[in-house]
Specification:
With 286 residues, the protein is an all-alpha fold. The chain folds into 2 domains: 159 residues, no CATH class; 50 residues, no CATH class. The protein contains 14 helices and no strands. Helix content is 66%, strand content 0%. The protein starts with a helix and ends with a helix. This is DoxX-like protein. Keywords: Membrane, Transmembrane, Transmembrane helix.
C-alpha cells in the first residue's frame, strides 16, 4: 500500500482494486462451497444429461434428413426457416453431427467443459432465432437450456477462467481433487474445489456438504416461472403454431380486427413477420 501511494496511484483506483479483490475472494469461497456440495453435483449431472439428450434427439432428426418440427406450416416464420434449412444440402446433417458431438462430450465427465463450450453457441443461436421469429415452441426451452449451459460453464470456472480476460497474475490453477486424493493428501486444503460425483461415496464422505441449497432451488423455480410467463407476454403479437391458435390467443390489448388480419397475414397469406407487423401498425394508426 505504501508503494502504491509513493508512486502516485490515485486513491479511487486503489480502493476499487481492493473492492475487486474482496469480490473475487468472496466468489472463490462461494464457488468452492458449490463444488463441495452434493446437491449441486446432482444438479450439474442433471443439466449435462438433459442438455445432451435434447441435442441427441434434435441432431438425429437432421442426420436422417427429416425436417425438424415437420408439423409446422411452411408459411409460419419458423416453419419457413426450417424448410429452407432442410434444403441446404450437407450443411443440414452437419448441424446434426455437431449437436450429437456436443451431447456426447457433455455425457463424458472429463470432456463436459469442452462439450459445454461447443454446445453454447449452438443453443444461443436457437434462442436468438426463437426470439427473432417469436416462436413460442422453443422460446421457453431454449432460454432454460441457455441458462443450464451457463451453469455448467460456471461450475467449471476453475478451468474456464484461463480463457477469460483476467490478469495473468491472478491466475493459478489448483486442480479439483477427488475424494480419494483428499484422503491420501495430508496437506489437503479445504479451500480447494473438489471433484465429486453424485453417488454413494459422496454421501458418506465428511468433506462433501449435504446441506440442501433451498435458496438456489427457489431461484431455479422463480426463473422457470418467469421464463414461462414472459414467453407469452414478451410480445403483443405472436404467430403461435397455426391460424386457429393465433386467433384464439390474441391479447386483450390487441384490437380484434387488426389481430385477425395479422393472423391471416401470417398463416393464410404467408407474408413475412416484418411485413405483417408493419401492416398491423398501419391498421392501428387509422
Amino acid at each position: 500500500m505504501y508503494l502504491e501511494r509513493s508512486i502516485g496511484i490515485p486513491k479511487f483506483i486503489i480502493k476499487n482494486h481492493a473492492i475487486v479483490k474482496t469480490m473475487n475472494k468472496s466468489f472463490l469461497s462461494f464457488y468452492t462451497n458449490v463444488r463441495s456440495n452434493f446437491w449441486h453435483a446432482g444438479f450439474y449431472l442433471f443439466c449435462r444429461c438433459t442438455l445432451a439428450l435434447g441435442f441427441i434427439v434434435a441432431g438425429w432428426v437432421k442426420i436422417i434428413d427429416e425436417r425438424f418440427a415437420s408439423g409446422l406450416a411452411v408459411k409460419h416464420p419458423m416453419g419457413a426457416f426450417l424448410e429452407a434449412l432442410h434444403h441446404t444440402g450437407f450443411y443440414y446433417p452437419f448441424i446434426g453431427i455437431a449437436q450429437i458431438a456436443a451431447a456426447v462430450l457433455l455425457f463424458i465427465p472429463r470432456t463436459a467443459l469442452l462439450g459445454a463450450l461447443v454446445y453454447f453457441p449452438i443453443i444461443l443461436n436457437i434462442f436468438v432465432l426463437s426470439l427473432a421469429v417469436r416462436f413460442e415452441g422453443s422460446l421457453v426451452t431454449s432460454t432454460l437450456m441457455v441458462l443450464a449451459n451457463l451453469y455448467i460453464l460456471l461450475y467449471n470456472y476453475d478451468r474456464l477462467k484461463f480463457i477469460l480476460p483476467f490478469s495473468d497474475k491472478s491466475l493459478k490453477y489448483d486442480p479439483p481433487l477427488t475424494l480419494r486424493e483428499t484422503e491420501n493428501d495430508p496437506h489437503f486444503k479445504k479451500d480447494v474445489p473438489l471433484r465429486i460425483n453424485f453417488n454413494l461415496a459422496s454421501i458418506k464422505s465428511p468433506l462433501v456438504s449435504k446441506k440442501f441449497p433451498w435458496v438456489f432451488l427457489g431461484m431455479i423455480i422463480l426463473i422457470s416461472v418467469i421464463t414461462m410467463f414472459a414467453s407469452n407476454r414478451l410480445f403483443e403479437l405472436m404467430p403461435r403454431n397455426n391460424y386457429g391458435d393465433c386467433v384464439s390467443r390474441l391479447e386483450s390489448r390487441t384490437p380484434e380486427k387488426a389481430g385477425f388480419d395479422f393472423c391471416n397475414c401470417i398463416h393464410n397469406q404467408g407474408k413475412s413477420l416484418d411485413k405483417c407487423l408493419k401492416d398491423y401498425e398501419e391498421i392501428n394508426k387509422k
